[in-house]
Design a protein that fits this description.
By secondary structure, this protein is α+β, with helices and mostly antiparallel strands. The chain is built from three helices and three strands.
């Protein structure tokens, strides 16, 4: 039997990531989202963790540009 993933609302995901809910909705770089209904979107904690891991860079190789 598969286990149901821990899910986060947009508000919870934005707090975890320290970004706005608007950024989560509109950014093409945002983590994957699950749509449960016409207006209900949630985020898997595991997907957010994988998304963050994929964006982790070696400090010596990161861009010199200031964000």
């Amino acid at each position: 039997m598969s286990q149901v993933p821990e899910i986060l609302t947009s508000a919870e995901a934005s707090k975890v990531l320290r970004v706005s809910r608007k950024w989560l909705r509109e950014s093409p770089d945002a983590p994957p989202v699950m749509q449960l209904g016409p207006r209900k979107f949630v985020y898997s904690r595991a997907a957010i963790e994988a998304w963050l891991a994929a964006r982790t860079v070696d400090p010596s190789k990161r861009s010199k540009e200031v964000a």
